[in-house]
Amino acid sequence: MNGPLALEEAQERLLALAPPVRIEEVSVDQAHGRVLAVDLRAARTQPPADLSAMDGYALSADADAHSDSGSGPWRIVGESRAGVPFGGALGPGEAVRISTGAHMPEGADRVLLQEDASVEEATLRAGEIPPPGRHVRKRGFDFEEGAQVLSAGSMLGPAQIALAIAAGHASCMVAAVPRIAVLDSGDELVRDPTRCGPGQIPASNGPMLAAQLAPLGVRAARLGPVADDMEALARALSQAEQADILVTSGGASVGDHDLLQDALKRWGADIAFWKVAIKPGKPLLVATRDRPDAPPQVIVGLPGNPVSSFVTAFLFVLPLVRAAMGAAEPLPHSLSVRTREDLPPGGKRREFLRAVMEGQQVRRCATQDSSALMALAGADCLIDRPAGADPVEAGEEVSVWSLRTG
Ligand SMILES: Nc1nc2c(c(=O)[nH]1)N[C@H]1C(S)=C(S)[C@@H](COP(=O)(O)OP(=O)(O)OC[C@H]3O[C@@H](n4cnc5c(N)ncnc54)[C@H](O)[C@@H]3O)O[C@H]1N2
Ligand code: MOO
User: Fold this and answer.
1) pLDDT tens for residues 5-32?
2) Which residue has the CA at smallest separation from atom 45 of ligand 1?
3) What are the residue boundaries of the MoaB/Mog domain, all occurrences included (predicted)?
4) Which terminal Cβ of the chain has fewer Cβ within 10 Å, N or C?
5) Atom 4 (ligand 2): residue with closest C-alpha?
6) How does pLDDT run across 49-104, given as a tens digit for each residue?
7) For the complex shown, is ipTM > 0.95?
8) 203 to each of 59, 73, 78, 257, how far by Cα in Å?
């Protein structure tokens, strides 16, 4: 038997198995969290004309020549409002009242802030004359029609949605969200948390995993909890036929009742690898299953301990789903952050400590047991402690993975 894989190798091998991207058209305002499947080019120019960036007065381009001792006067000949441009052109010594976002009138090349202006009837004066171009947003400075504004593989967050809409698109081509089934197993598990008999516990992993997937737009089919029983597992697996990705939780270890691997093999799955040198999460299992008229299913078997399930979903399942959605960068990013306290040397496995950001520093949670949900729920990041790492003193930097972004 080969030893556990290193995290990066396991992630690379899993991502290489990602189901192929399917493309669909969605309305941009429904595309939050989706990944763009093709480059997006601007269908319009933004801004569509030279616009004022401030409320004030648009001055004629001859403002310098025209002014006597730097103060005007200019004759106010009209108004340009956002959406209602001034109809004419400015002649020498003329100005128009202008609001933020309004078209610069023809013949105007700068804006005098209203705070710097003095107005008497229709006559405008200023202490200082603004230089040409001041407070003017040039036509097309953000993007020109035809320019590529977003590239394939970009995740569409709020800013990208605003950009796509501003670029004149009502719909866009994105990767379809993969179909995902979540199956948790264990004789002790009950679905209704208010009805636990002796020896039973609520099946919390299924809802937890579904919630981890939800921000990616995934509505996971819940197939558990299922008893540690070959027939029950076979029945549940038969309901996962349509899933592009099957996520299981529990039964991945070596106990007498850990039947998952055998059940998967009987279902027709080929085990790609089992065990990764991380804590929590060592018994992670990855398999594939061929289907006659569809791409192979990818199966990720997560360890049943709730924290192990959570951390391995973060490190493996979410990246796999992002890869299946065509994301250019499916893996999570780490940051360097100073630790608030001393940390002991790294152990045999690379460890992901549940931790909390306190200001600019990070503090690990007191309980690191892989079943401890209180610590997990209080954590907002994971400290990455490499195997065999040197001890770290308070104030030194450690690598941290934020859980806020999923
Ligand atoms: N002799 C060994 N024992 C164990 C090893 C090992 O290498 N040798 N590995 C340990 C590690 S590490 C982990 S992690 C666990 C993983 O085991 P399983 O994937 O087989 O998980 P289960 O035994 O089914 O459950 C473990 C634990 O988690 C609870 N659980 C399971 N599913 C759920 C759920 N859906 N909701 C809430 N809680 C759940 C379950 O009741 C158990 O307490 O194995 C170690 N053992
Ligand atoms: O790997 Mo287990 O997940 O350490 O508890």
Assistant:
1) 999 999 999 999 999 999 999 999 999 9
2) 253
3) 181-323
4) N
5) 280
6) 999 999 999 998 887 765 555 577 899 999 999 999 999 999 999 999 999 999 99
7) yes
8) 70, 78, 70, 17
CB count within 10 Å of CB 128 equals: 10
Q: Residues 241, 247, 249, 253: what is their CA dihedral angle, to the nearest 10 degrees? A: 90
> Is the CB–ligand 1 distance for residue 80 below 6 Å?
no
Residue 223 φ then ψ, to 5°: -110, -5
CATH fold of 334-402, please? Answer: Beta-clip (2.40.340)
Going from the Cα of 46 to the center of ligand 1, the distance in angstroms, rounded, reads 56
Both tokens assigned to 304: 């049943």
Pocket test for ligand 2, best of 254, 305, 349 (most atoms within 8 A of CB): 305
Alpha-helical regions (H) of 268-305:
none
Residue count (the chain):
406
Q: What is the pTM of this model?
A: 0.87
Sign for the CA dihedral angle at 278, 279, 280, 283 comes to positive
Ligand 1 atom with the shortest distance to the CA of 305: 28
Q: From the CA of 348, which ligand is nearest?
A: 2
Q: Nearest-5° angle of CA 312, CA 318, CA 323? A: 130
What residues does each domain of the chain span? 7-22+177-324, 35-46+142-175, 51-137, 334-402
Where b means 16+ CB within 10 Å and e means fewer, 298-308 reads bbbbbbbbbbb
Q: Do the bridges between strand 278-279 and strand 350-358 make them parallel or antiparallel, or are there none, so unpaired?
A: parallel
The CATH class of 51-137 is mainly beta
Which residues on adjacent β-strands are paired with residue 294?
Answer: 291
Q: Is 280 in the pocket of ligand 1 (CB under 6 A)?
A: yes
Distance 5 CA to ligand 2 centre (A): 14
Nearest by Cα to 284 from 247, 323, 255: 247
Task: Show Cβ contacts of residue 21 under 8 Å, excluding neighbours closer than 6 positions.
Answer: 37, 175, 176, 324, 325, 326
CATH number belonging to the domain at 7-22+177-324, selected among 3.40.980.10, 3.20.110.20, 3.40.190.170, 3.30.450.20: 3.40.980.10
Q: Which ligand is nearest to the CA of 306?
A: 1
Could you tell me if 82 and 102 are in contact, meaning their C-beta atoms sit under 8 angstroms apart?
A: yes
